[in-house]
Amino acid sequence: QVQLVESGGDLVQAGGSLRLSCAASGSIFSINSINNMGWYRQAPGKQRELVAYITRGGSLNYSDSVKGRFTISRDNQKSTVYLQMNSLKPEDTAVYYCNAQGLIKAYWGQGTQVTVSS
């Protein structure tokens, strides 16, 4: 059993930056079973979409819409994944959700609101 808690969402102006954090907690075994960790987002009236994910070994994957602006990173010792968001656009406004892939199931955080004003 793994619990994910996101933080860092805020209201920012277009062109600004924000850093999201997601900390995993639970049994040592469950936390160690996590392979990929990633960030998804969901805007009002839209389907949840993948933003970025990172493997245990550090391989990076980004959605085309955020490539070059966002950076995902991971601290395995702290069981935490980060999303550094630069050059934010109003289109980035959404609830951002942390995701972790365990051996059998996926885990989700509660979400953190990111709002980018024009």
Show the helix and strand layout:
Elements: E1 2-7, E2 11-13, E3 18-26, H1 28-32, E4 37-42, E5 49-54, E6 60-62, E7 70-75, E8 80-85, E9 94-101, E10 106-108, E11 112-117
What does this structure look like?
4% of the residues lie in helices and 53% in strands. With 118 residues, the protein is mainly β. The chain is built from one helix and eleven strands, in the order βββαββββββββ.
Please state the structural category: mainly beta
Output the radius of gyration.
14 Å
The total of helices stands at: 1
> Could you state the order of secondary-structure elements as H and E?
EEEHEEEEEEEE
- Mean pLDDT, rounded to whole units? 95
The helical percent reads under 10%
| Low-pLDDT residue intervals, each spanning 5 or more residues | none
Approximate strand percentage: over 45%
Distance between the termini: 40 Å
Brief sketch in words of this structure:
The protein has one helix at residues 28-32; strands at residues 2-7, 11-13, 18-26, 37-42, 49-54, 60-62, 70-75, 80-85, 94-101, 106-108, 112-117.
